[in-house]
Amino acid sequence: MDGIIETLQHLGETTIFIKLMALTKLEEKLNTEGPFTIFAPNDEAFSELPAEIFQELTANLESLREILFYHIVPGELMSEELIANPVITTLEGEDLLVEILDDTLEVNDAAIITPDVPYFNGWIHVIDAVLMP
After folding, report:
1. Does the residue 90 lie in any domain?
2. Which DSSP state fits 95?
3. Cα gap 120→123, rounded to integer Å
4. Pairing verdict, β 104-107 and 110-119
């Protein structure tokens, strides 16, 4: 089974998330520690951020790392486990709220558009918004 970057590349809709992980050197952590559940914003989610916020994120690697940690939860959580555990704590230290709205599984207010993608060290769920702590 592939590592985090290879798995995200196969999805083809998370290139910006991949680049941001590379900037903060998170790949090694996600491939060697863990397991992890990752909520990966798709490229469209990043394109919807105001340009000045995106520029601030890429200019301040510490803040960027904090934002990315807010998208990562320790443990392996597939959709069923997310539903059973509606409050989950991120690596950043704050909680995410999981709920079902109109038959859509959401984390905070981001819809999970591609759930339950396995990588060798956990699970990836592609979401349609960037989560902000």
Report:
1. yes
2. E
3. 8
4. antiparallel
Looking at the domain assignment, is residue 39 inside a domain?
yes
**What does the pLDDT average to over 118-130?**
95
DSSP states of 15-52: HHHHHHHHHHT-HHHHHHS--EEEEEE-HHHHHTS-HH
Neighbours of 95 (CB within 10 A): 14
How many Cα atoms sit within 13 Å of 111 on the Cβ side?
Answer: 8
107 within some domain? yes
pLDDT per residue over 9-64, tens digit each? 999 899 999 999 999 998 888 888 889 999 999 999 999 999 998 898 888 999 99
Q: At 23, which CATH number?
A: 2.30.180.10
C-alpha angle 103-108-112 in degrees, rounded to nearest 5: 45
Q: Tell me how many domains the chain contains.
A: 1
Question: Cα dihedral angle (62, 68, 70, 72), rounded to 10 degrees?
Answer: -130
Residue partners of 38: CB distance under 8 A and separation at least 6: 4, 30, 71, 72, 73, 122, 123, 124, 125
